[in-house]
Amino acid sequence: MLNVNIESFGYTKETVLKNLNFSVEKGKHISILGESGCGKSTLLKIIYGLLHVEHGTIVWEDNELLGPNFNLVPGEPFIKYLAQDFDLMPYISVADNIGKHLSRRFMQHRKERIAELLEVVDMTAFADIHVKLLSGGQKQRVALARAIAKEPELLLLDEPFSHIDNFRRNALRRNLYAYLKKEGITCITATHDSEEALSFSDEIKMMRKGTFIQTETPEALFQNPKDAYVASFFGDVNSLEIDGKTRLLMPHQLVVSKDESAIQVEVLKSYFKGSHYLIEALFKNKKIYFNAYKSFQKGQRMYLINT
Ligand SMILES: Nc1ncnc2c1ncn2[C@@H]1O[C@H](COP(=O)(O)OP(=O)(O)OP(=O)(O)O)[C@@H](O)[C@H]1O
């Protein structure tokens, strides 16, 4: 179990993190979801032991982690932190980068392990290529494989799929998170990608300006965002006055109806989304968004009900 208690942290006089008190059970996957600059990387660096926190404690399995002021080599050996800049060695092969921290005493075992990791990140075909020659996304996949090579107890991932194209991203995420679950590796992922947080975490912590504003399971957070800011991470959110109350509704929660007592809207534009259309419409002079299975003409009037 990881226990984090950070009263406050700042690089300068300015406070970057405040009142972060949480624990993560062994084997769980947590996403820290928040916009750029809200403090996600700073939190991961503190947990790993790269930054000293004056007002707070980090505890793993009842042992307090003392941080860079007490450790000669920053970072804890049982934690791996995958930073946004990968930190790979450009002039050696993909396989040797992945095997960097693996013992050379058992060469056969090392070879098998590297082959297994190459498969997890779908880089088998590149094993002997120098890292220098890889694309950004390929480098990120090598860095991911290297981070899990020695099976850390706790893995901290900072925007781990940011350079990887959509085509590969989904398969890779499924592979990686399934592997971590299978091995019981606890994982904290910092991301601004709500889709990733929804699909691959046991719990999401929404961060804003250095503190958590809502913590829920993905389902609960999506169905019950506490305010328009949280909801906006999951798409175009509608803030509607219904029966004298303000309600936050996502586009999928509004459907076209024949019920003339429902809210009446006028279509502005239809956006094709692949599996459906997102319709932009006017309701009481305010833009409103809903999903539909076909597109509508500008100016068309219709009724919507809340599902
Ligand atoms: N080394 C540093 N010295 C001073 N301020 C810093 C330093 N690193 C980050 N900051 C500031 O701390 C705040 C939080 O930054 P942090 O990198 O933790 O955010 P983030 O949520 O990870 O953003 P991103 O997703 O863009 O990486 C920002 O205001 C940033 O400018």
Topology:
Blueprint (H helix, E strand, L loop, with lengths): L1 E8 L7 E8 L4 E5 L6 H9 L6 E6 L2 E2 L14 E4 L11 H5 L8 H14 L15 H13 L5 E5 L7 H18 L2 E6 L2 H7 L2 E6 L2 E6 L1 H6 L4 H5 L5 E5 L2 E5 L4 E4 L5 E10 L4 E7 L2 E7 L8 E6 L1
Parallel strand pairs: 3-8, 3-9, 6-7, 7-8
Antiparallel strand pairs: 1-2, 1-4, 4-5, 9-10, 11-12, 13-17, 14-15, 14-17, 15-16
The structure holds adenosine-5'-triphosphate.
The site of adenosine-5'-triphosphate (ATP) has 12 residues, from α1.
In short:
Helices cover 25% and strands 33% of the residues. With 307 residues, the chain is an alpha+beta fold. The chain has two domains: 2-228, Rossmann fold (3-Layer(aba) Sandwich); 240-306, OB fold (Dihydrolipoamide Acetyltransferase, E2P), CATH 2.40.50.140.
Can you walk me through this structure?
The chain has 307 residues and is α+β, with helices and mostly antiparallel strands. The protein folds into 2 domains: 2-228, P-loop containing nucleotide triphosphate hydrolases (Rossmann fold, 3-Layer(aba) Sandwich), CATH 3.40.50.300; 240-306, Beta Barrel (OB fold (Dihydrolipoamide Acetyltransferase, E2P)). The chain contains 8 helices and 17 strands. Strand 11 and strand 12 (245-249) form a beta hairpin. The chain is globular and about 75 Å long. The chain starts with a strand and ends with a strand. The mean pLDDT is 93.
